[in-house]
Design a protein that fits this description.
This protein is about 20% helix and about 35% strand. Strands 1, 2, 3, 4, 5, 6, 7, 8, 9 and 10 form a ten-stranded mixed β-sheet that branches. The protein is globular and about 75 Å long. A hairpin with a 4-residue loop joins strand 25 and strand 26. By secondary structure, the protein is of the alpha+beta class. It has two domains: about 100 residues, no CATH class; about 240 residues, no CATH class.
């Protein structure tokens, strides 16, 4: 990418020449590289097609994104043709688009005033996942697949997807920012489907993701986690009992608490949703009808968002508008405390951005996005949360979830779930307990969040916009207890 930095700087200078009156200009140069390995029932595939047919399993993409703000209108152009003639054409097109947009807007688009940085940053690692030989990756996956060579009480269909990628960026602006970043990532997605011939079936979809190195990733002992999941799926199919009825207490494991923090808190706190911009694509937000300070849940409820967590799958230190990242406290002591902002939405609220602008590649617009969303740790140990439950369910993992476009009405169906009786978790598997509840009802039912030692994380890909952008994220938190909720 070094050989194209001069071209990026040329683009920025050209945008300010020939009498152009740009209110703001930015250039984002990127290399987006990824390798994808897929094994389906032990047979290797590359990308999305059988190995002999595909050409995109190993992707190497480079390009430049140019955004100009002119008289209240924004123009954006991206290209992978990296020469001066093309760059000039792109800048000219972005400038004309911005002028037309500004003339048509009822109110001018503005960007919040932010500090300019000159900095280089990267994730920490020892072994870059992109540098690991293909043979070693294949051997790693084959070891996982060997789990299914053993005899099991039910039949299993299994898919393993290994994604290694690297994103290198050079971001410069007319305000003086000059930011370089280097972020390798790795993710493993095991999809396991247990089938009892003529009977029940259960499936599990998990993402193990990190911005750390190959050495850290392989130290997680994922094979044992997969073996445990295989056993649990078999037990659920063969042993699960009907869920109790009526109002009971529920303890949610970090897996379920994590998806709730993402869906019921993270998405509705995105400022572009609240303003209605994503209404025809990813949806809106029930918080459109409320202001900061609105009571969402009980005082013990705290849900935060933090891109700066080292090793996290959603890790970054500066967003794709050059704003320095920090923790965002979305729900604090049960109160609607903060939205997720990029510079455009922040300006509309007359505040500064909290660095939530993310793009997945050079040819995508930076949008308001999550990174790592989680319930903050509370005061109780897991044992203390359980011992105070007379009749309830420990929903350790989920098998499905649904939520409406405003993130108001939601449903989460448990997978690995156990009956709690008289303060003890039994060995009785509960069949698909369903938690169907409104977002304020959910947060208003929480009376405890577990201590920090109960916290766990899971990787995910957060989808948004058109064309779609699947951002790497973490979801997680401690165990969370809900009182007196009715199962669906």
């Amino acid at each position: 990418m070094e050989e194209f930095k001069d071209l990026a700087e040329f683009a920025l200078e050209y945008a300010r020449e020939n009498g152009r009156t740009c209110d703001y200009a930015e250039v984002r140069l990127e290399n987006n590289n990824s390798d994808i390995l897929i094994f389906i029932n032990g047979k290797m595939h590359m990308g999305n097609l059988p190995i002999e047919l595909t050409t995109d399993a190993f992707s190497r993409k480079s390009g430049i994104n140019i955004r100009l703000l002119v008289n209240g209108g924004m123009g954006m152009v991206a290209t992978n043709i990296l020469n001066k003639e093309t760059i000039c054409d792109c800048v000219d097109h972005a400038y004309k688009t911005a002028k037309r947009s500004g003339a048509q807007r009822k109110s001018p688009l503005k960007m919040s005033e932010e500090k300019a940085y000159e900095v280089k940053w990267q994730s920490k690692y020892k072994i870059n996942p992109m540098a690991v030989p293909l043979e070693e990756k294949i051997t790693y996956l084959q070891d996982l697949i060997s789990i299914f060579s053993e005899k099991h009480p039910v039949n299993f269909i299994h898919i393993f997807v290994l994604i290694t990628e690297q994103r290198d960026t050079y971001f410069i602006t007319s305000e003086g920012s000059k930011i370089s970043s280097h972020v390798p990532r790795i993710a493993l997605i095991p999809v396991i489907i247990g089938v009892q011939p003529g009977g029940k079936n259960e499936q599990s979809y998990t993402t193990y993701g990190t911005t750390g190195g190959w050495d850290e990733f392989t130290s997680w002992n994922i094979k044992q986690k997969v073996e445990d999941k295989v056993k649990v799926l078999g037990d659920i199919i063969l042993k699960s009992k009907k869920s109790p009825e009526g109002e009971i207490d529920i303890i949610l494991g970090p897996d379920v608490a994590g998806i709730i923090s993402h869906e019921n808190c993270g998405h509705p706190h995105e400022a572009d949703r609240i303003l209605g911009r994503e209404g025809a694509q990813a949806g809106e937000s029930y918080l459109k009808e409320h202001e900061l300070g609105y009571k969402i849940g009980n005082e013990c409820v705290n849900v935060f968002e933090d891109p700066t967590i080292l090793g996290s799958y959603g890790f970054y230190l500066y967003d794709d508008e050059g704003v320095k990242a920090r923790r965002r406290e979305l729900i604090k002591d049960g109160i609607f405390n903060e939205m997720l902002h990029n510079r455009e939405t922040a300006a509309m609220f007359n505040i500064q951005s909290n660095a939530a602008a993310r793009a997945v590649a050079y040819d995508r617009e930076p949008l308001v996005r999550m990174a790592n969303t989680y319930f903050a740790p509370g005061d109780l140990s897991f044992e203390e949360m359980v011992e105070d439950v007379k009749l309830g369910i420990f929903m350790k993992s989920f098998t499905e979830w649904n939520i409406d476009d405003k993130r108001l009405q939601s449903k989460y169906v448990g997978q690995e779930a156990y009956l709690i009786e008289n303060g003890e978790i039994s060995n009785i598997f509960v069949l698909k307990p369903g938690l169907e509840i409104s977002t304020p009802g959910l947060f208003g039912s929480i009376d405890a969040q577990g201590k920090e030692e109960t916290m766990e994380w899971q990787g995910a890909f957060c989808g948004k916009s058109e064309p779609g952008q699947g951002c790497p994220v973490w979801t997680g938190g401690p165990a969370v207890r809900l009182r007196n909720v009715r199962l669906a």
